[in-house]
Design a protein that fits this description.
CATH class of one domain: Mainly Beta
Strand content: 25-35%
Helix content: 25-40%
Number of helices: 20
């Protein structure tokens, strides 16, 4: 879990005592949403703080003020070096309130470790903490009068009195941790800024922290981040990067720099405290936003330049090197320029040119440039919080990330992959050299093992896969494409009536596609009639206008449900999103028909026959067919996947995808979308989705399922209690109203974005673990029923495992059972004859939410709910 998510989860931001406007280019710390104590479904979690405070703790700092439309006041002293928000100031790492979801699961109360599979010895990117402070530490609240927001300025002002509290200390920007108490419980010190302004610092004793206090972990993380500076790393945003040797690439007229750094976190695990360290990369473009705007304006049509700039720039991330901060561009103010003025806190006016010259020693030379608008960092659950807009100068901002041209260039992407996707051997060596200095740590008697943590894993056997009349298993890479070549599909669907639309520039490719489809579908068992081929102009409306004409005719000709025998394939001249969205929206809402869009260059490739084979397989799935099935050894069990899509570019409504298996063989699926408030992660309409899925199940099977297993993706550790209260509990309550005591429910949280890696040692070298590798010791939590699975194979770089956390279980799933089931479901994604990183229902939910969120923007027609139309 990221430090930012921890900040949100613990509600550490507070409202400032006196509202004032922000300086341009200076963000506010987001205001935390009110944290309410939900009614506990399970037992109340153990308190993290056993120590009582001597004085009432201060409320955390950093609330926002109401956004205003024009200009900002100059904040005087508070602007001194006012560049870091609260989250950076306190290190950005917090200990979560760990919800003990395991203790009520009697079947894993004594052990949650499985036994199936071949044992293997693994190395992980964790360093064990072999020594940490064993004495009581003393925590003090630190307040500044007048208030100082910038973390580095707060540190500088406090360090003027370092003789009074000593070199051995940890300061998070808000609290001071000392190994020895000060003489007085409350002291006041006076500091002076560079511009001779006086600041009073009030230091007041808060409480004693025992060595076992989880709150100490937050300070350990802050302490360790300070050691990164000893390695000559440069802080950009939250992470630290190597400044000495940036790797420079130059492709398609764009110069790039790749900065390599580290991401770290210290947390309590099953058998002790460990430091997780992983290699991180930052991609910077050696061009300013002003250069980028000028380039777009030079190529744009007259009168359309501003819209082109907005399309390319809004939603991107820019870097300001004068404070090493990153910002998201939310808008462009074409009515202002650097020569305009804004109000200072004393009521006087200052131009942006003079402000940046005085505050950051930056000289603005281009007057005719707009101002960039950033609303601050977008956060789940805080979308209603008003934020003070931040105004940035394009000339002082640098572009980050890749251009569309680079992403489409195979050579460029391959070169980038060679630099950023480190093999297990290179990653291991980089991490070994990471632990070079621990001078600051020794002051606190804090010591880390110099060797990476070694632990044991198990490799599960691959699932049995049935296609046609044949049973196969995946190979060592988790793939079985060769094993099922020329074998009929499990459930082929005939295609008797279908349209193939193409533009005049794609005629040859369309002809080749139709011809190849006839050849590749026969061995699959699919009977296919010749296509009705129609040429269109190529612009978005030409496709939809043609579809309106022919789909209406099809309705009159076909007497049975038309989507079973009707299919549309569109060959597109390029990957223009507007055209694609037009087609998908019409065919998913107005006239619901399974559709396939193929870009011209895709079927021009050398491996075109292989690609067309996959297209045919997708067509079969979208029409209700099935490619293969997997042996799960469970009966009458429904599997559900839930994931959410959040539009962080346009900040529009969020989409929750719900996908459930509706037969015992897991070859039929029911899908539904829930459209909810922007940034809302938890889904409130799951009972409706579950009822519809159960109705479809009863149409396919003779009896209701006995067990329901939910895989929930996209939820952070700090949301577990809310997830129990708002999703798992309502589902369980609904099942009990249908048939008390006849249903069992398991709720499993899926977490992909983790920094933990595992390496398999072969002699003197390191390689990726095999697919099916399970880890359920050492790096799991005592409070959770959790485990890791490496379920896929990667051709480049280091494989990333997936973390699973069973937060509720009335089925009584044993460790071997839930681990084997989870791995089996990673074989069931019909877009790939191989294992994927997450269970198939989870990935189906992601694909559904992404399609609706990116292209359709409304609920698909119900007639498509039993088809995998979003593949």
């Amino acid at each position: 879990m990221t430090g930012r998510a921890r900040t949100t989860a613990r509600g550490r931001a507070r409202r400032r005592e006196q509202e004032e406007q922000e300086a341009p280019g200076v963000p506010r710390a987001p205001e935390s949403a009110a944290v309410s104590e939900p009614a506990q479904w399970q037992r109340t979690p153990r308190s993290l703080r056993g120590e009582g405070p001597v004085v009432r703790p201060r409320q955390p700092r950093g609330a926002e003020v109401a956004a205003q439309s024009r200009g900002v006041k100059e904040p005087g002293l508070e602007a001194g070096l006012k560049t870091l928000s609260l989250q950076e100031r306190i290190g950005g790492v917090f200990q979560d309130l760990v919800v003990n979801t395991r203790r009520d699961m009697m079947h894993v109360k004594n052990s949650k470790t499985g036994s199936e599979g071949e044992a293997v010895q693994l190395i992980t990117n964790h360093f064990r903490v072999i020594s940490h402070p064993q004495r009581v530490a003393f925590k003090y609240n630190v307040d500044y009068k007048p208030d100082v927001e910038a973390g580095n300025l707060r540190q500088i002002l406090l360090n003027q009195h370092i003789r009074k509290f000593g070199e051995c200390h940890i300061f998070d920007g808000n609290s001071l941790l000392l190994p020895q108490p000060l003489r007085e419980q409350k002291v006041e010190w006076v500091s002076i800024t560079e511009d001779k302004k006086i600041v009073k610092i009030v230091v007041e004793f808060s409480k004693e922290l025992k060595p076992t206090s989880p709150d100490c972990l937050r300070f350990y993380n802050i302490l360790f981040r300070k050691t990164l500076k000893e390695l000559n790393l440069k802080q950009i945003g939250r992470h630290y990067y190597t400044e000495k040797i940036p790797l420079t690439l130059e492709r398609r007229g764009t110069r790039l720099e790749i900065w390599r750094g580290y991401v770290t976190s210290i947390l309590q695990y099953e058998n002790g405290i460990t430091l997780c360290a992983d290699v991180n990369h930052k991609l910077l473009r050696i061009e300013t936003v002003h250069d980028f705007i000028s380039k777009i304006q030079a190529r744009a049509y007259p009168g359309n330049a501003q819209q082109e700039v907005a399309n390319k720039l809004i939603g991107s991330i820019v870097l300001t090197k004068y404070n090493n901060r990153t910002y998201r561009v939310d808008g462009i103010d074409w009515n202002q320029n650097p020569d305009d003025t804004f109000n200072k806190s004393d009521g006087t006016k200052i131009t942006y040119i003079d402000y940046y010259k005085q505050q950051h020693k930056e000289i603005i030379t281009v007057m005719q440039q707009p101002l960039l608008i950033s609303q601050g960092r977008w956060k789940k659950g805080q979308t209603d919080t008003q934020r003070e807009p931040i105004l940035l100068i394009p000339q002082l901002c640098y572009m980050t990330g890749l251009t569309d041209e680079i992403r489409k260039d195979y050579t460029s992407m391959k070169h980038l992959a060679e630099k950023t996707k480190l093999s297990p051997e290179k990653r291991h060596n980089s991490l070994k050299g990471f632990m070079k200095t621990q001078a600051l740590l020794r002051l606190w008697d804090f010591k880390l093992d110099s060797n990476l943590l070694s632990l044991q894993g198990r490799v599960l056997s691959n699932a049995n896969i049935f296609q046609g009349r044949r049973m196969v298993q995946a190979n060592a890479s988790g793939e079985w494409a060769r094993e099922v070549r020329e074998i009929p599909l499990l459930c082929p669907v005939p295609l008797h009536s279908w349209l193939l639309l193409y533009s005049r520039h794609c005629r040859t490719q369309a002809m080749n596609l139709a011809e190849h489809l006839q050849h590749v579908t026969a061995p699959m068992g699919i009977t296919m009639s010749p296509a009705s081929m129609i040429e269109v102009d190529g612009h978005p409306d030409s496709y939809t206008n043609t579809l309106r004409k022919y789909t209406r005719s099809a309705l009159q000709m076909v007497r049975i449900p038309c989507f079973l025998v009707f299919k549309v394939i569109c060959v597109l001249p390029n990957d223009d999103k507007n055209r694609y969205d037009h087609i998908k929206k019409y065919l998913c809402t107005t006239f619901p028909i399974p559709s396939q869009c193929v870009v011209k260059r895709t079927i021009e490739k050398v491996q075109a026959r292989t690609i067309i084979t996959k297209i045919a397989q997708q067509m079969n799935c979208k029409m209700g067919g099935a490619l293969w099935k997997v042996e799960t050894n469970v009966q009458r069990t429904m599997f559900i996947g839930i994931d959410c899509f959040h539009d962080i570019v346009r900040r529009q409504e969020s989409i929750a995808g719900f996908v459930a298996s509706t037969n015992a063989e897991l070859t039929k699926w029911y899908s539904q979308c829930v459209i909810q408030a922007t940034g809302e992660e938890l889904v409130n309409e799951l009972q409706t989705c579950l009822k519809a899925a159960l109705d479809v199940w009863c149409e396919n099977e003779s009896s209701m399922p006995r067990s329901i297993i939910v895989y929930r993706d996209g939820v952070g550790d700090g949301q577990l209690q809310a997830l129990l209260d708002r999703e798992a509990k309502p589902m369980w309550t609904y099942l009990q109203t249908i048939s008390p005591n006849n249903f069992a429910l398991a709720f499993i949280v899926v977490k992909k974005r983790i920094n933990t890696r595992f390496f398999l040692k072969r002699g003197n070298y390191f390689e990726n673990p095999r697919p099916g590798t399970v880890i359920d010791v050492e790096l799991t939590r005592n409070e959770w029923y959790d485990f890791f699975i490496v379920s896929q194979s990667v051709s480049e770089g280091t494989v990333t495992p997936t973390h699973y956390n069973v937060i509720y279980d009335t089925i009584g799933l044993r460790p071997d059972t839930v681990q084997r089931l989870t791995y089996c479901l990673c074989h069931m994604y019909y877009n790939l004859p191989g294992t994927i990183r997450v269970p198939a229902p989870c990935h189906y939910a992601h694909k559904l939410a992404y399609l609706v969120g990116q292209s359709i923007r409304q609920k698909p027609n119900r007639s498509l709910s039993t088809l995998l139309f979003y593949l």
